[in-house]
Amino acid sequence: MVRQLVILLALLLATGVAARGQTVVNTESGPVQSVTSSAECEVFRGIPYAAPPVGELRWRAPQPATPWDTVRLCSDWGPMCYPMMWARRGNFYAMEYRDTTAHVRVSEDCLYLNIWIPKGERQRLPVMVWIHGGAFWSGRASAREFWGDSLVAHGVILVTVGYRLATAGFMAHPDLAREAGTPGSGNYGLMDQIAALRWVRRNIAAFGGDSTNVTLFGESAGAGSVQALVSSPLCKGLIDKAIMQSGGGYRNIIFPVGRRWSQNFGKSLMKYARCPSIDSLRRVPIMTLNSLVLKLSRRHLKIPFVWPTIDGQVITESFGEATRRKHVLPIPYMIGYNRNDLVKPVMRRAARKWALMENAAGNPTWVYCFDRGLPGDKMKKPGNSGARHTAEIRYVFGTLASSWRPWRKGDWQLSQLMIRYWTNFAKTGNPNGEGLPQWRPYTHDDKCEKHFDITEK
């Protein structure tokens, strides 16, 4: 009762601030206050949706966030998780997504989400939840290319989710399974995403969102996360629609590894770190462990496989098997790839084959190909032109202005077109809408694949 009175007083004191265009919302953990993002949009940055997964909580399922009583001003982004590695200077992705904010904090304390809402009256707006990519080893939810102002302008609420990465997010070991009383271990990053979806279901109505109309979408490893979650028994009732951009589909390049493989790798890491127990391994700085994983991987595997695993709890089977057995959620889907994507033939075949299977199962599924070769690459480094992996992201979010590229009028028009398709899908489960060229599901009888490009080069 005392805590409720304190919260009520805090909300009353914040009324003057809210009147100036900022909003105070009471979540299950405590009141939060937005900051202005644009003329028509507000943002809540860095809302904790779970307790910091540090110390004894490292490599455990996410726990509830610690409640607070005073209004939490959400003006700062939450920290990103320690990455496996930073992109090397001069690397395409380092250049493409170089930091555009003043300061990026890095920490194991990384379970925060961000919410963009329109200013003014809001009632039961569709909710889009974004899972960033980065090979499960890097990336952050607050990156400028994911800001939600343009999407929100089309009548949705956007949530972007931070989660555990690399060794912090996907370390597997038989002792961890025994400790948790589960069949396997690992997948803590996916557990974080599930915790965020549950948080959205419980809290988003207070922000003006419709908790029964949630679209999960992601790109690359984010799409891999989406495909893992829509086939997970833990996600029933949490996702109403899903979009996979360059990373989902039948027999795609993103797949969970077997339990024995992942746990044997964890045992090798423990031995390599000279730690006799999980408790002692928990005391090793996560960046040290990431470095050891890289060294161990290069010595034996050439790639660092702390990665989603078939643990028998979060992931119980391969995505292909889940598709064949009709274990994926019976919801509408969009899936696509880029013209110059990673392993393009596999991406294209995976998207098309999966769409055929899902439409045959009664789940309406649309396929796209992003064809626009990004302008300006040759100004930086010869040979980089093309519709590369991740090239579609700024078009989907309407964040072209955050890039150095010399956009043309057609790029801005293409971005608006894609935003309309994406937000229509979030609203109704169908990307089509008034004034848009018709986009049909990809079926055996009608192999319709939407191609996104500009007409004037």
TrEMBL record:
One of its GO terms (molecular function) is hydrolase activity. Its EC number is 3.1.1.-. It holds the Pfam family COesterase. Keywords: Hydrolase, Signal. Gene3D superfamilies: alpha/beta hydrolase (3.40.50.1820). Residues 23-344, 349-456 form the Carboxylesterase type B domain. Residues 1-19 form the signal peptide. Belongs to the type-B carboxylesterase/lipase family. This is Carboxylic ester hydrolase.
